[in-house]
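Supplementary Methods, section 5.1.

A reviewer requested that the exact input to the structure prediction be made available. We therefore reproduce it here, unchanged from the version used in the analyses.
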Amino acid sequence: MKIIAIIPARMGSSRFPGKPLADINGMPMIGHCYKRTELCTDLDDSYVATCDAEIFDYIRSIGGKAIMTSDKHERASDRSAEAMLKIEEEIGQKVDIVVMVQGDEPMITPNMITESIEPFKQDSSVNVVNLMAKMNSLEEFNDPNEVKVVVDKNSNALYFSREPIPSDKKWSGEIPMLKQVCIIPFRREYLLKFNDLEETILEKIESVDMMRVLENGENVKMVFTNSESYSVDTIADLEKVKEYLLKDNIIHNYM
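The structure derived from this sequence is encoded token-by-token as follows.
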């Protein structure tokens, strides 16, 4: 089984322009994402997919692999699919699994990638997987930048939302506060199929790509991780991640 990671990244984030090259303790954020992804021994290779020369040149400067893609893509999955096809042409071989790692997840660990691809080895019917993690505060639970998820008894996603789900309005017990962690592996053919599907209404309302899968009656397998990870959507997030990475036990492997 040939497994590659693709990290889609672009400079033009509406909430945080230039985010991929924002400095985190002496290295741009996209550098942390790439180097930490590359440490996973379950991957055959890792690439950054971008439409920006600054990101492309930086990744090449640290010995990494980068693929230039169109600047017309609205979704990370579209950029990843274009990059995948270019990579396949370059290596002369089709891949089996593409692990899409968002470029604003600088706390990713190699083990998180390993956890995310395990369902493909166990169940041939699994086409797409997301990691999920516990949220530790109501502040995080109410943050619209954090995508919340609820799952069924088989750990398939029932719904994703930027609102706090499930509701605590009529419940006095403990609420399962789970968030999506943006490490999203696809089977090759399903990534192409996913991008051919039209955007769905709930996907647009929630601004969560995975709703497209659910609205088409298919499953997103959720895998729980105990690894602590915070995405960077704002300057405040960046400062928080800087503090966490000062105590990180992986960073010495690449810095």
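The chain has one domain: 3-253. These observations are discussed further in the main text.
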